[in-house]
Structure formats: C-alpha cells, structure tokens
Design brief:
The complex is a heterodimer of chains A (310) and B (430). In chain A, 74% of the residues lie in helices and 0% in strands. Chain A has 310 residues and is an all-alpha fold. In chain A, helix 4 runs antiparallel to helix 12. The longest helix of chain A is centred in the N-terminal third of the chain and has 44 residues. The N terminus of chain A is likely disordered. Chain B is an alpha/beta fold. Chain B contains 18 helices and 13 strands. Classes of the chains: A mainly alpha (310), B alpha/beta (430).
Chain lengths: 310, 430
C-alpha cells in the first residue's frame, strides 16, 4: 500500500519507475494467484460458459433431449425476426421504458418531494407508497388479475356501480397492455420514490436556504436547485427502469401470460413461451442471445453517454 | 497449519469410517430398491388412491420402496429434459404420448416396454385396449404403460337448451350445431363457455373440425408429410372462423383460463362447453362452480362433436387424451411390474375412486358415474381415437395449433395465414 502511494505521489524517472513497478507487481502476484482463480472459475463456470453454450445452441434445431446435432445456421435468428410476437415484445418493452420515464419517474419524484417535507403522516405515506414494491411480482400479478376480472373483479364492480357493462381489459388485445402498464407503474413507482428520497436527503439544505434568501419561488427552487442536484439519481432511476423493463417476466405470467394474441409479451415472456414451453431450446437460445445483445448495448451505451460523470 | 490439516484429516477419516460402519449395519437389513415415481397429480383425493396402491405394492414386495415426487404441470414439462439426462432421473413419469414421447424415445433415456408387454404370451398387452397401446407406441415399440384415456365432447345445460327450444339430440351436423348456437343467442343465452386465455380449450374445436373434414386417413397423410395446408384444413379453419364470427363465447373469453371457463358452465352462465369426459361428475361440478355446487348431474347432457357435410370423418371418431407411465433407462427392474400393478390390477380401483377411464380392458364396469360411463361406452365403439393435437404434434407445432385456433376464432388471422404458420412450425420438425 505504501509502495503504491509513494509511486502515485512522486514522479519518478524512467529507471526508478521500472524498478518500482517491478517490486509492486512482485508484491501483487501472490494476491492475484490466490484470489483470482476462485472468482474467475465461478464466473467462467456460471456466467461465461452458459452464455457461450446458449450462443452455440442458437445455431441448432434442438428440443433439449439428447445432444444438439441438427445445425441450422442463422435460421433461428431469421425466425425470431419473422415472428410478429417478437415485434410486439420489442414494442412493449419500448413502451414500458417510455411510460417509466414519462409517468412513473415524474410521479415518483413528485411523491418523493412531498413525503420528504416535514408534514404529519409523511412517514406513513412513504411506507404505503413503498408497499407495492415489497410485494412479490407473482403475487402482484395474481392480485391484479382478480382486480381486472370482468365478472367478479373490482373494476367490474365499479363499472356496474356506474351502470356500465363491465370491461374485460385483460381479454382485449387493444387494451390489455395498457392495463399491464398501469400495474407496472403501481408496482415500481415506490422503488424510484425511495431512490429519490435518498437523493433528496443528500442535498445540502444550505443551498436551498440560499435560494430562499435570493427570493426563488418553489418551482424555481425545484427546477434550478433540486433537480440539477438530483441529476445522478434521475439517471440511475432511468437506468433501473430500462433494465427492469428488459427483465420483466414474473408479473406478466400470472396477469396475462403474454396474451391475448401475444399483445402483452415482453422479451423474456417471449423467450419463455416460444423457447422453453415449446421445447425449442435452439430457438430460445437465439432469443436469449438477442436479448443479451440488446441488454449489453443499452446498458453500456447508457452508462457511457448519460452516466459517465456519476 | 499442517497440525490443523492433520487433525482434520484424521477426523474425516474417523467420520468416513463411522459412515461406512453405519451403512454396513443398515444395508443387509434393508436391501431396498426405490422406485421414484414422478407425477403431477395435485388433487389430494386422487393422490391418496395412488398412495394406497403404492402401499399395497410395498406390502406385497417388502424390498421395494416407492417414493413420490411431485412437479407442477408446467414445471414438469420444462424440467423433464434436463432431469432425464441427470443422475436424479425418476424411475417412472407421466406422459401424454405424442411428439414429446417420440422425442424422449430418441434419446435413449427411456426404456422400451415392448418385451414386458409381450412377456407371458402378451399378458399385459392383451389386458389393455389395443388403441391405447397403439397410441403409446412409436414404430412398433411400446414406450409407456397405458393407464387412462379420455374423450372430449360437448356438455350442455339441459335447462338452458330447453329455454331456447334447442333439441341436443338433433345436433349431428355442424350446420345444425351453428343453428343451435344462433337459437341460444337469440334467447339471450351465452351459447359456449370458451377458454381463450389458456388457448388449448379452443384447439379442441379446430382439432375436431379438422378430424371431421379429413377423416383418419387424411389426417395420417397430413402428419406423414403432406402437411396442413390442404383443402380439408382450409375448410375446417374457415368453419372455426365462422363460428367465432357468431360471437358464441362468454364476454372476455380471450382472457379466460380453464378454471374460469369451467366456472362459466358450472354456474349456468353459458349453455355448453367442449370439455373432458369428467365434466359432469358431481365432484368436478363442485370444484368448478362459484357456489361450490355447480349444475345437478341430471341437468347436464352430452353429445358427440357433430360431423361436417362432405367430410370424411365419422361421428364415432373420438378425440381425447391418452396417458401412461414411462420408465427411464436406469430405473429398477421392478418398475414395469409396479406399473402393471397400478394400471391393470388396480384399474377398477382407479376407475371407481378417481373418476378416470382406465385403458385396462373390462374396467369400464367399475365406472360408477353415469356420465363417465356414457363417455366410456362411446369410446368402446370408437372408430378412431386421436390424441390431443398439442401432444400428438409435439410441443412446438402443438402450441402453434393452440395459438392459431384462438386467432382464428377471434378473427385475428385468416385461415390461410393460420395454416401457413402451422405448416412453418411443422416443416421445422420434419
């Protein structure tokens, strides 16, 4: 440690620099030899190898039994892009991201600013708003399936109360995904709210006081002081929304199972229904590879472009 | 350091010695064979029957232990490929026959039961309905011990039919069926309970229509490679689309699961449903209905799926499930004997207590429920028994058939588009 510190602090000439680095490396080698292999082995075994295998299987027509021996080249990938369900899934994932950014995050931010004010009951509301996020995704999906049920559900009873015919939102392919989006917003806004609460608490009060003294209005304080200082939290929040959208699965399955007419598929439910359930391991692997590429591209480019200073 | 290791090693040595001693103490007294029975029966009453049968077998064969392993339906289908290739493979597991059984038979992970069936002058084979043995055979080899089969037919609510002035006994052709649907609609009654959310309940309609159009030979030719785009399939698909255009199903049927659908019929909210043989049994009605009772047995009637004009299929051509037990390659040799014990010797117990229709010959006398007995009687006269298409055609083509059946009935695709998709999936399998 002291060696590292001294080499960082001083500006040694070429010869001493080489000598010092040599010493430093010699000191690090045992550490590398001792501590790297276990992690590397586990990572290779459980992350790299399965990824490589998935990529390999994606070139086969294989149902999971026996060994893959029917090489089909790029056919699985061609089939993916010919599936209208896959296009639905892509559009739906996009919609989730848009709704997260345009509705969920502003809502969470607004609520976070409300519950961080020192008013009575703020803590209770903070808890209530966070509760949906605590609920298991599958449970939430099942609860909302009951809520939306056109015969016995809450929505049906409300409709009947107003003298309307009860709607069957989850059975209507033009409406079902909006109903799912509403559940997604309900389920995850609490999580983003918590992020914002943490962000808000980290803001130095004296900056806001200074703004007060300068005569800023509430809105000005929010847009000129709070929001810029929350920038990194907002960017993180959007990042989580994007990644969450790409992973969304366990709430959709009990809610709609991807139907009707594949109108509520996401990329992962598409993989499950068309790869796993149809025992098309090759095709499913190809979907996995596509999903992986989308995830990596989005995650890295987002970090590069928006989060480079965070 | 070495001191610690030395001590550990010694302790481990002692521990190992102890274990060996304990094992040697146990083994001679307990030279057990374990049959691992993987099933997906979630109904506790039915499972109790199996447990009783297993206990009886264990009593008669003290050196055999039967271990129950349960997997939920979807988990079973998803896990089985991996499970079969692992050391944790069960000894015997449930099968629906068809494409999945074929795929399993090609891996070497499961045992050919032909020799066991033909032993003692074919004692086992001769005790089972030939159609059932045939249904679980691939290229002349028997890959599963048949247990039960089923029949899908129309069940109807007699009171609602009467209210609309429809005579169920007169429905023998598809046109007469459509007329009945229209009459029910005019009377303000929802004609059919449909489960579009689960999709496979709608595939019953497409399957039956295709069977009625093509007949057994036409269907066999399609599966043998002729494909699914012929005239017969086109007409069948068009008929399903026409039925959908009449809007015969309950509101929101496209989101309805199978339990939802059963409730619609059992609550009297729809006049009929195309469903399994046990639909009218009191226990099934009680399970399905919202009020826990359901329709009275004498209020439920049954009729076979009607024929289509000009079609090659007969009204005695049946469509329904066929189930059996598959034995894995490394299973103990007693497994076959146990399956025989379960499915043949205890067939009447299964028929009586579990309301199933065993494939063992002569067990139909034990079927107590009149509606089940009625189904059994029709099956006994069957000219052809077709397994569920989502099993028979394999999981991939099968699921496409399910998807397309729903799309056809809801007007999402044209018959040509639907058949193209089925054909695409089918040609990938070939």
């Amino acid at each position: 440690m002291s060696q590292l510190a001294s080499s960082a602090l001083s500006l040694p000439t070429g010869k001493t620099r080489m000598r010092r680095r040599g010493v430093g490396n010699r000191g690090k080698w045992p550490v590398i030899v001792l501590f790297l292999p276990p992690a590397l082995l586990l990572f290779t075994l459980f992350v790299i190898l399965p990824m490589g295998e998935a990529a390999w299987y994606s070139f086969f027509n294989w149902n999971g039994y026996g060994l893959p021996d029917q090489w089909v080249g790029w056919k699985n990938y061609e089939l993916i892009f010919r599936q209208s369900a896959f296009r639905n899934a892509l559009v739906n994932n996009g919609l989730i991201i848009v709704v997260s950014i345009c509705i969920q995050i502003p809502l969470a931010l607004w609520l976070a600013t409300m519950v961080t004010k020192h008013i009575k009951g703020a803590l209770v509301f903070r808890l209530i708003f966070f509760l949906p996020y605590v609920l298991a995704d599958v449970a939430a999906g099942m609860i909302w399936r009951f809520v939306y049920d056109g015969e016995f559900g809450l929505v049906a009873n409300v409709a009947r109360f107003f003298g309307q015919a009860p709607p069957f939102w989850l059975a209507d392919k033009d409406v079902a995904f909006y109903a799912v989006l509403a559940v997604i917003v309900w389920k995850y806004f609490g999580f983003h709210m918590m992020l914002f609460i943490a962000g808000l608490q980290a803001i130095d009060k004296s900056v806001l006081e200074a703004a007060d003294i300068d005569g800023a209005t509430g809105w000005q304080k929010f847009t000129r002081v709070t929001l810029p200082l929350l920038g990194s939290t907002v960017r993180l929040s959007v990042f989580f929304a994007v990644v969450g959208s790409l992973q969304l699965f366990d709430m959709i399955m009990p809610l709609t199972g991807g139907g009707p007419s594949n109108s509520t598929q996401t990329l992962v439910t598409f993989l499950y229904s068309f790869g796993v359930m149809r025992m098309q391991v090759g095709f499913g692997s190809a979907v996995g590879v596509v999903l992986f590429i989308i995830c990596v591209t989005l995650a890295f480019s987002y970090k590069r472009v928006f989060m480079k200073n965070d | 350091m070495s001191g610690i290791f030395g001590r550990l090693a010694r302790q481990r040595g002692l521990f190992a010695l102890g274990t060996v001693a304990m094992l040697t103490a146990i083994v001679p007294a307990n030279a057990q064979t374990t049959i691992k029975w993987l099933h997906l029966e979630a109904n506790p009453d039915r499972l109790a029957t199996w447990e009783d049968i297993a206990a009886a077998y264990e009593e008669a064969n003290p050196d055999v232990t039967i271990e129950f392993q349960f997997l939920e339906n979807e988990a079973f289908k998803a896990k089985l490929p991996t499970l079969l290739q692992s050391n944790e493979a069960p000894s015997m597991f449930y099968t629906w026959g068809g494409g999945v059984l074929k795929a399993q038979s090609e891996t070497g992970a499961i045992r050919d039961l032909t020799a066991a069936m033909d032993a003692d002058g074919g004692a086992w084979r001769n005790a089972v309905s030939p159609a059932a043995v045939d249904g679980l055979s691939i290229d002349g080899k028997v890959w599963a011990g048949p247990q039960q089969s089923g029949l899908v037919s129309f069940f109807y609510n007699k009171a609602l039919f009467e209210e609309a002035g429809v005579d169920a006994a007169a429905i023998t052709t598809w046109d007469e069926y459509l007329a009945a649907v229209s009459a029910l609609k005019e009377a303000g009654i929802t004609p059919i309970a449909g489960g579009g959310g689960d999709k496979w309940p709608i595939h019953f309609f497409w399957s039956y229509l295709a069977m009625r159009e093509l007949g057994q030979d036409g269907f066999a030719a399609a599966k043998a490679g002729e494909g699914f785009q012929g005239e017969g399939f086109l007409r069948a698909s068009q008929k399903l689309a026409d039925l959908g255009a009449l809007e015969p199903f309950q509101d929101g049927y496209l989101g309805a699961s199978w339990p939802d659908t059963q409730a619609v019929f059992a609550d009297g909210r729809a006049a009929m449903m195309l469903a399994f043989e046990n639909t009218a049994t009191p226990s099934n009605q009680a399970n399905a209905a919202t009020d826990g009772k359901g329709l009275a047995s004498d209020n439920i009637g049954r009729f076979a799926f009607p024929v289509v004009e000009g079609g090659a299929g007969l009204i005695t051509d049946d469509f329904g499930g066929l189930n059996g037990w598959v034995v894995t390659t490394n299973a103990p040799p007693e497994t076959e004997d146990f399956i025989h014990f379960l499915t043949i010797e205890n067939a009447s117990v299964l028929a009586e207590r579990n309301s199933t229709l065993p494939t063992a010959l002569g067990s139909d006398a034990s079927v107590k429920d009149p509606s089940l007995a009625d189904s059994a009687a029709q099956m006994a006269k069957a000219t052809w028994h077709q397994n569920y298409l989502d099993q028979d055609l394999g999981p991939n083509v099968g699921r496409v058939v399910n998807d397309m059946s729903v799309e056809l009935v809801s007007g999402g695709v044209t018959p040509e588009e639907a058949l193209q998709q089925i054909q695409d999936a089918f040609s990938m399998e070939m």
